[in-house]
Specification:
295 residues; alpha/beta; 3-stranded antiparallel β-sheet; 10 strands
Length: 295
């Protein structure tokens, strides 16, 4: 039987907080329980927000926690793999599965508002709460869209994708003992999702499935806030001919008001807890208490 491979893949766009610590510790716990390997990956495709000083701080926090990452010359960094993502996207484009889109967020919002005013009904939303793309660029000649110049995003044609990889779609969820159960996946609820961003030659969705396959990841452990994205990832794996790992989505560490911890909200970073005298065991105890029954 192939040895399980886990990965923890944070982004150095801010300081790590207790939510990151919980996810890293869950990966380490399950890797040890199932006698697997644990890899560290740096998800730094956003080269504007991700910084080298934040990467160094992130690595220092993880070393302080004493996590048993497999020794590597250096962690895989997504910012060094843009050619790989370009090649994957080019393959999808060649099959007619992606189309260029020039729409701004405001233009999408205006188009959705017009549809809602016309129909008197709310426009459907994706699992993250964003309005589904109304298809403004879907029927346009791609050459004409590109000829206009300027940056474009590349969206997945959900209709073409489902024709190329018809359902039903599913993935396997695993428990503490490695037993699995099948979970139905519904990529349609994401609509024509962005697969290549305007300013970056990939998206989280494309990069994560390509890198999980490249690193031989067999078990993905991540927060419940990413559970719905698995539907889209399963479809991309089918389209790209990549294996689908087993998945487990853990509960989230929340703040006093019930909010999900987030760098953007200024959640207390591990560095501040360390400076206040916390030990790695204090962190472990805190996340155990905060997530009791939510793993």
């Amino acid at each position: 039987m192939t040895q399980p491979v886990f990965r923890f893949a944070p982004s150095p766009n801010g300081r790590l907080h207790l939510g990151h610590a919980y996810s890293a510790l869950e990966n380490a716990r399950l890797a040890a329980r199932l006698r697997g390997r644990l890899l560290l990956r740096v998800e730094d495709i956003d080269t504007t927000r991700c910084r080298e000083d934040l990467l160094a701080a992130m690595l220092d926090d993880l070393a302080w926690l004493g996590l048993p990452f497999e020794p590597q010359p250096a962690p895989l960094r997504q910012s060094a793999r843009f050619p790989v993502y370009r090649a994957a996207a080019a393959g999808l484009r060649a099959r007619g599965l992606l189309y260029p889109c020039r729409c701004s967020r405001k233009e999408i919002a205006d188009a959705v508002a017009a549809r809602e005013a016309e129909t008197g009904a709310p426009w459907p939303r994706d699992p993250d709460g964003a309005p589904l793309y109304p298809g403004s660029c879907r029927g346009r000649d791609p050459a004409a869209v590109l000829a206009a110049g300027g940056p474009v995003a590349w969206r997945l044609s959900m209709e073409a994708a489902l024709a190329a990889a018809p359902g039903p779609h599913a993935y396997a969820r695993f428990d503490d003992d490695g037993a699995t159960e099948s979970v139905a996946a519904d990529p349609v609820r994401w609509g024509d999702a962005v697969i290549v961003r305007k300013e970056i030659p990939t998206s989280y969705h494309l990069a994560v499935v390509v890198d999980d396959a490249a690193q031989g990841v067999t078990h993905v452990v991540r927060g419940a806030d990413l559970e719905a994205a698995t539907d889209l990832h399963v479809l991309l794996q089918r389209l790209l001919g990549l294996p689908t790992p087993l998945y487990r989505h853990h509960g989230l560490v929340r703040g006093a008001a019930g909010e999900k911890l987030a760098k953007s909200l200024g959640s207390t970073p591990l560095a501040e807890l360390r400076a206040a005298g916390w030990t790695p065991e204090d962190v472990r105890a805190a996340v155990r208490a905060a997530t009791a029954g939510a793993a």
